[in-house]
Fold these 2 entries.
Entry 1:
Amino acid sequence: MTGAEGKSDSVTDPARLDPAQLDPAQLDVARLDPAQLDPAQLDPAELDAAGAEAELARLAQEIAAANRAYHQDDAPIISDAAYDALRQRNSAIEARFPALKRADSPNEKVGDAPAAGFGKVIHAAPMLSLENAFDEADVIDFAARVRKYLGLEPQATLALTAEPKIDGLSLSLRYEGGTLVQAATRGDGETGENVTDNARTIADIPQQLVGAPEILEVRGEVYMSHADFAALNARQSAAGGKTFANPRNAAAGSLRQLDAAVTRARPLRFFAYAWGVLSDPLSDTQSGSIARLNDLGFKTNPLTTLCRSTDELIAVYTAIAAQRATLGYDIDGVVYKVDSLDLQRRLGFRSTTPRWAIAHKFPAELAWTELLAIDIQVGRTGALSPVARLRPVTVGGVVVSNATLHNEDYIAGRNATGEPIRDGRDIRVGDWVEVYRAGDVIPKIRDVDPARRPAGAIPFVFPTLCPECGSQALRDAGDAVRRCTGGMVCPAQAVEKLKHFVSRAAFDIEGLGAKQIEMFFADPVLPIREPADIFTLAARDAAAIAKLENRDGFGEKSVKKLFQAIETKRIIQLDRLIFALGIRHVGESGSALLAAHYASWPAFEAAMTTAQVGEGAAWDALLAIDGIGPVVAASIVTTFHQPAERAAIDRLMAHLQVQDVAPRQIADTPVAGKTVVFTGTLERMTRAEAKARAEALGARVAGSVSAKTDLLIAGPGAGSKAKLAAELGVETIDEDAWLALIGSA
DNA sequence: GTGCCTCGAGTTCC
DNA sequence: CTCGAGGCAC
């Protein structure tokens, strides 16, 4: 439990410590009634506004001091439990007096709890994933998109690098003053695990660099060679240990050892291929930067090649594919990157992938096996999903026994628009089917062999009744999925909704995962059938004769921990709460939009209660939110008007204190919050690029001039828009003035 | 109306 | 990770 006992782990942020990992003995006092820590402190409920304001100021100061001591001085001044109590008290007061929430509120930095084992590391620059190309057409598309975005002349050369995509796990290494100070896994891209001790045991990773930038984050792939993998497995099986399915699993398993001595004994290797934050650029090109990393002492892949055309990219792909079997390590494709870092910067990023790179994947490994059965699963929204049960078969180093069959049409041999797939061949129980792993992860069925179809195999009949509750399962016209209409009556939907409620982006209750939800849902003594039941669990347990701590899999300690974890989530952020409700079409980002717009639960709840689908001011206000359309809006409003759903929400709310969301941070740029329009020919950048830049600076980019327009950027050839802007008195500037305004950096 | 782009939902194995 | 579909710009 890194850092949990207050040990000095310079990386674990105390703000991110998991309360459930703290010593329960300390917690009882600290958590259940923070005010008792100091009798002079009033319960948050008894504070008046002035008292609350002063108290928030004091807490902000104390928490900041504790953070400083922990981080900078490496000498904690208070126990983790006491620290936690301070934060808890701060949250409670903020929840009661949202208007008093300070700009420097310690809660602005609260994040997710870390998994047990390694400390968490927030990547200074996120570790992104790559878009995939599966054939030459995708590669040509990619190159064309890049050229279009940059506005390159047809005859202009676009240089790109091509390098093998190593099949291992990515790692980010941070060097300060030339010394390796931290190694972190990718994690979800935002937050990874601190594996510094283990990374130090890898020979390919230098501990010291000479002539490196002051701050340098090197990114690359940890992998294991085929020879080392075979030897390791031989050693493991000789010692009676378990063997690994493939080199990637072996590399991942070895790097994530809690005991660095074990990692040291594992023959891991490392190729550097990218970088994160750095204090000085390594070069002005991708290829130059890689060469520089090589000079600094990193292994870089020798097959990395600089190309000047799509044809050259494909040629390199073909050459690397031909060498694949003799490389001595696993690769799963070839990565192409725009060579000029200036162009990379101009291209920028979409939400999770850079626009300047793509991974050209090798064809997926395939395997034939027998389809034993088709089961139907019922999801949170009632969707009936067919799952193939397969005779276990090895595909790409992993044994697969289940695969998704998508939907009714997919089994029947049609796509969503009714056109035939697999030449119209349907899939039947007993068939031989071809399995692959999409993106090397998700098992799917690609084809079926009609020649091996057993006599008497009958077409699969997709159920029209829910297999879990017997309700009608209907399919809307134009919809690909069939849905159970049972709603809250359907046990499968109820369980899935509960799993969603406790999931990571929702209430994120430690110790109450999918498995525990299944168990509690079926529990005769202490059932959890709806979200409100979670918050009455401890009280019901106290009153019960058959107590939780006497069950299999639960002890006194784990029960206490669980109740503690539930207790802390009685205070919940508005966006998490909205997401947790599990309203169809309302996911993480929609919830954030709604929370930011309505700011408080009472405001949101009142608006949804008042609103009528398709009419009225409340409905119009909902639709006016950027990103909320009629389908999403109708889904929310309908949910709030269903008596059963509504009652369940009200029962839940009786147990919660909702933290209002802070008003959206307005970026500190000259164009933040402004609506701008581009017109005419832009000479220094393309339209798409200008738009992305403006949006990154907090501006809204519109297509046409109206009274709401704040600024028109007019290039040569501007016509009607410039005229209209003049009539409306909208400020109009040229491209150079615009670049000057935004500081072109 | 069409064509991006992004989000939501469902899914597997370790 | 991928597909389908919603939202929105053109």
Note: The longest strand of chain A covers residues 366-378.
Entry 2:
Amino acid sequence: MFSQASEYALRALTELARCDPQEWVLTSQLAKLLDVPVHYLAKVLQTLARRGILESQRGRQGGFRLGMSPDDVSAYDVVRELDDIRSLESCIMGENDCSDDTACPLHALWKTIRDEFVDALRNTTLRDLADFQEARPGSGRLAAVKSKLPELRRPGPGAAASG
Amino acid sequence: MFSQASEYALRALTELARCDPQEWVLTSQLAKLLDVPVHYLAKVLQTLARRGILESQRGRQGGFRLGMSPDDVSAYDVVRELDDIRSLESCIMGENDCSDDTACPLHALWKTIRDEFVDALRNTTLRDLADFQEARPGSGRLAAVKSKLPELRRPGPGAAASG
DNA sequence: TGATAATAGGACTTGTTTATCCATTTATCA
DNA sequence: TGATAAATGGATAAACAAGTCCTATTATCA
């Protein structure tokens, strides 16, 4: 249904919506948690950062975090940035002149389904996705990934303990 | 939504369901009517012929015609031959372990929409598509294409008039 | 100030879909 | 029997998505 890019984006943003909104999260941590190609995920995150859905910080202590409130970003907003979502609007039989007026044989059916789908995506926020994931048994967490990657763990400012 | 191949197939089969089931129709006639690439359409039709949805006849007076009753072929049957329709069954967020038991945040939504869509495709026959198209104002007909392509027009056996 | 760790961005590879072209096979017609 | 018209099948190209790799840029830390 969605492109790989959109799938990765939805999953990454869901995880970012689950953790401290101030915290910078590494691409490598997200890739590890989601089990997706790290370089490709990086491209996706960069695109989302250009669009304002994410903020990015270069250099040491850098990473990505949400650029907007998870209540203000819908699943539709995410997919729209990465997929040509207007293709959902076009004729499912590929006709050139298919509209409500001159409908192809599948137009009414497709319009019903598609509108239902798009409405649901518009009404589902990153907060919704994060809350669902939070309540899901056995769902991994970024914190767990970090504790399993000691070479990536960094003491926060003021934390002097070093094991 | 569907691949180009499926779109071409649905449209071509709809037209074939509108005309004499005994008549052999040329790829070039269908391509002209649908305004699609003739060679690519030919590949699609050949695939459908291998699957039994179409019959084909080589040589002069050859062409394609339905291999089954238009009442017995659903839109789902057509798309299944050309697209990997199982991708509709897989997780919309791309998760590996997403099922009714361990559902991703969009699972319930997607399952509802997808089932509704697939059921509708299963319950829509080529006859339905053809009937709709038949009642549609301004929908082209294969007969019209043939009369506009005199070089393709062939007298039927016993038809001697050539005026 | 230099080393390090991170994002940013471009070039490249790989695989699939879409599309084109050509030669082959097959059936009909004169 | 030969010419013609059609599907068949293979090779190839173009466009796109997915993924990899390398370098540049930027921020932090010692």
Note: The longest helix of chain A spans residues 107-122.
